[in-house]
Amino acid sequence: MDPSQSWISRRRAFGLLPCGALLLAVACEHSATPTNPNAAAPSASGAAVFSAQASIGDLQHTLDSGAARVRIRLVRDSLVADRIVIERARRMSADEEVEGRVTAVATGPGADTLTLDVGGLKVVLDSTTRLRGQHEWGDDDEHDGRSGLAEFTTRLTMALGAGRRPFVEARRKPPAAPQAPGDGSFTAATIRLDAADEAPELELNVDSANFSTNGSPPPDGWITVLGLAIEIRSTTTIKADLPRASGVMEFSDTVLSADTVAGTATLAGGTLLRLVAGSEIESAHGVGIASLADVAADLAAGKSVLAHGRGLLVTASPRTFDVIEVVFHLGT
Questions:
Q1: What gap in Å lies between CA 49 and CA 26, rounded to an integer?
Q2: Rounded to two decimals, what is the model's pTM?
Q3: Band of pLDDT at residue 20, cut at 50, 70 and 90
Q4: How far, in Å, CA of 262 to CA of 211, rounded?
Q5: Model pLDDT for residues 271-312, shown as the tens digit of each residue
Q6: N or C, which end of the chain has less CB nearby within 10 Å?
Q7: Does residue 224 or residue 286 have the better pLDDT?
């Protein structure tokens, strides 16, 4: 299996990730003119703009106008929003998603339940849930049915017993209308087990019923989903996706080398990543690899480092990306 497919399937198992979703960088400057004729047009400053800064008032106005899709990243081990992205309207038909680390497993006669480090959220798995996980059955293997579920939850239980907190992404088809704020039910149509250790995230359709402000901050307000009252604070970054810019693609592979002077990383397949103005390295709030220098140090120590993320394709040969967002983590 092509390593890039693991990123695509892990982050958008049912369709390619839209370039605007989860884009952390407001702008990405290019030292060379992109060869892709469909590349995003630069702004007056020469930077290609992928998302715009927004405020809690913008979020309220959006939800007062109707339902919207939001993606919420939490500060780890809390119900405080680190970032909220107001996604484009077309995302509302895409699968809803919950990502987090498993803290407990409960088995039952008809279904099993996972507890996540997302405020204790319960995710139900039944015999119809598709079970995926490259680190469990092979890169392109997929299981379902009761026997597959039993194996899946047994492996999770063993991992918990060994002191691990396995990271999963659970997906479901969106309901016809946004789920009531106090309704904590989430039955996964698909669940994927992965080696990532990122901050918890939720991507759901919401409306004005899910949002409230606080007359005596902090916090400034709450967005309540799946029975979880998530705080919106002055430290919360709020962004709004802009119309899609073509030329943005996913990448995922092992890192071969890192040049801290040039600000680049070379992947096993020969892909060159350029960290430019506006690039962001996610480090799960200080847990993990937070800089290119960290990557270089880990490689020098003989450790395996993986990179996955999104960037603007600058040249096809050699394959070069100006990075929008990247997560570096140690391989297994």
A1: 6
A2: 0.68
A3: very low
A4: 44
A5: 999 998 768 787 644 456 889 999 999 999 999 999 988 888
A6: C
A7: 224
Read off the amino acid at residue 215. Answer: G
Q: List, as one string, the DSSP characters of 175-189.
A: PSSPPPTT----B-S
Question: Which contacts (CB < 8 Å, 24+ apart) does range 210-214 have?
Answer: 210/63, 210/178, 210/181, 211/59, 211/60, 211/63, 213/56, 213/60
- End-to-end CA, the chain: 17
- Answer left, alpha or beta for residue 68, where phi above 0 means left and psi between -120 and 50 means alpha: beta
Q: Please tell me the distance from the alpha carbon of residue 48 to that of residue 232, in angstroms, as a whole number.
A: 28
Owner of token pair 């680049």? 264
Distance CA 29, CA 42 (A): 8
> CA 323, 326, 331: angle at the middle one, nearest 5?
135
In the three-class reduction of DSSP (H, G, I as helix; E, B as strand; rest coil), residue 57 is classed as helix
In whole angstroms, give the CA distance from residue 159 to residue 21: 31
Strand partners, 1: none
Q: Is the peptide bond before 3 cis (omega within 30 degrees of 0)?
A: no
